[in-house]
Amino acid sequence: MKNKYSIFTLIKNAFSYHENWEKAWKDPVPKKEYDAIVVGGGGHGLATAYYLAKKHNMKNIAVVEKGWIGGGNTGRNTTIIRSNYLWDASAGLYDHALKIWEGLSQELNYNVMFSQRGVMNLAHNLQDVRDLKRRTHANRLNGIDAVYLNTEEVKKFCPIINTSQDIRYPVLGGTLQRRAGTARHDAVAWGYARGADEMGVDIIQNCEVKGIKRNGDTVEGIETTKGFIKTKKIGVVAAGHSSVIANMAGLKLPLESKPLQALVSEPVKPIIDTVVMSNAVHAYVSQSDKGELVIGAGTDDYVSYSQKGSHDIVEGTLNAILELYPIFSRMRMLRQWGGIVDICPDASPIISKTSIKGLYFNCGWGTGGFKATPGSGDLFAHTIANDEPHKLNAAFNINRFVSGDLVDEHGAAAVAH
Amino acid sequence: MFLINCPFCGEREQSEFKAGGEAHIVRPKQPTELSDDEWAEYLFMRKNIKGIQFERWNHVHGCRKWFNMVRDTSNDQIKAVYKMGEKPPVK
Predict the structure, then answer these.
(1) What is the pTM of this model?
(2) How many CB pairs under 8 A join A and B?
(3) Which domain holds residue B30?
(4) Are residues A80 and A119 in contact, defined by beta-carbon separation less than 8 angstroms?
(5) Do A255 and B48 touch (CB under 8 A)?
(6) With contact defined as beta carbons under 8 Å apart, do A230 and A45 qualify?
(7) Interfacial residues of B (vs A; Cβ cutoff 8 Å)
(8) A243 in Cβ contact with A342 (< 8 Å)
(9) What is the ipTM, given to two decimal places?
């Protein structure tokens, strides 16, 4: 049993200069066989393992990660959490996650710094206004908090926005979800890892999957850089590399992997206490607790696994940021990076069984997976444990690309994908 | 970010181009005969290769012509560029 983190352990460890904290997770050697293996040690993968152990009593399981946990897109996103999606299926999925976020720090005994500072989405033209109003109505019918703001209310909520009607894309209004916000992305991975490890899950880092062994239509195990590991159930949560793993099993997925970029500025004093997203000009910004502006840029239109991105994408985003927030004109950017996101044709995820027995995929989160981390893990664990989807992820099966029953959130989901 | 050698215009910045996805996906000859599975394969399923990939590009801010490219998607190195209708260079 791990020591519970509390104010008392903090004080106690202060006396030993914080040098004697217990390790949050072990570094185990892989066993020969597991009941289930999760491929990918990001937030979604670790959450999957956590809920498999906690809710489905599967303790003999492992998470294999080719790098270090939380080192992929979990550590590269802009940490925005919201659930104001248009369609019923998406609303159910993302609000399920948001409800778990609200109690996650307590549940994990790990401060994920979930901050419900609100997310505001701006409208810049008449069609935006209509779409955003329609979405607020749809959200409220699904029990998700959403309000529509006019230009004055936008200015009141976030005074640094340039609401002049003379700019190229003037702010005509916006929507606000107050329950939305941000969280500390690394802490989410670490909190789930610590919780899963405590229940006996083996978290195996620096272990890359090289092949999937099949016997006919059933999986038998995985070939890794640390040898063969036998298992009957494989849950793949490999984000941008999902297609690579699928190819190993002889499957094709409806995904394209593209670089998505983000950047942060030098730290400054508190200036923006919410998250503001703009679909039309593609700019979104929030401020981290360290004081850095966290800015999300767009995806490149070509397939790439290089974790870089094009300069013109960043330039376009910063142009938009400067027009909306002239106050930032002399800010300097500290870092820029790219992550490889797996984009589905309908911009909705896949949490699904496959045609191969024992092989499950949780992928296609594209540009917006972080917000769903707890819900995704919970529903994927359910799908793996029961070999059946939960009713909340039934619509996100892989067969929707055959049946045509898509969950088309492209452009509907309050952000440019 | 990289330079692309357009087969019609020569070397230009990648920002002048638009990527058009996987190349050599053949349009079904008898669309009415296709099953749902075959439609899904044609419309949605992609190789999405990490490594050497064949793809289509359009010089959208230049000659506006389509062409094909062989590119290593793991490091964005362009291996070859060839015109539409031409046979892809052997690997």
Answers:
(1) 0.95
(2) 74
(3) 3-83
(4) yes
(5) yes
(6) no
(7) 1, 14-15, 18-19, 21-22, 36-37, 39-41, 43-50, 53, 55, 57, 71, 73-76
(8) yes
(9) 0.95
Is B51 a domain residue? yes
- Torsion A85-A89-A91-A94 (CA) sign: negative
Nearest to B15 among A256, A312, A345 (CB): A312
Is B91 domain-assigned? no
Q: Which chain A residue has its CA at the smallest distance from B34's CA?
A: A402
Q: Residue B19: closest CA among chain A residues belongs to which residue?
A: A302
R_g over Cα of chain B: 15
What does chain B come to in residues? 91
CA distance A29 to B90: 43
> Chain A: residue nearest B72 by CA?
A304
Per residue of chain B (91 residues), what is the pLDDT tens digit?
Answer: 789 999 999 999 999 999 999 999 999 999 999 999 999 999 999 999 999 999 999 999 999 999 999 999 999 999 999 999 998 886 6
In a domain, B90, yes or no: no
Distance CA A244, CA B53 (A): 13
Judge whether B46 lies within some domain.
Answer: yes
Please report the sign of the dihedral spanned by the C-alpha atoms of residue A30, residue A31, residue A32, residue A37.
Answer: negative
A255/B1 Cβ within 8 A = no
Q: Degrees (nearest 5) of the Cα angle B39, B43, B48?
A: 125
CATH number, domain at B19? 3.30.2270.10
Chain B residues touching A404 at Cβ < 8 A: 36
Q: Give the one of A303, A402, A403 whose C-beta lies nearest to B53's C-beta.
A: A303
**Kind and range of the H or E run holding A51:** helix A43-55
Q: B10 vs chain A: nearest CA distance in angstroms?
A: 20
Give the count of domains, chain B. 1
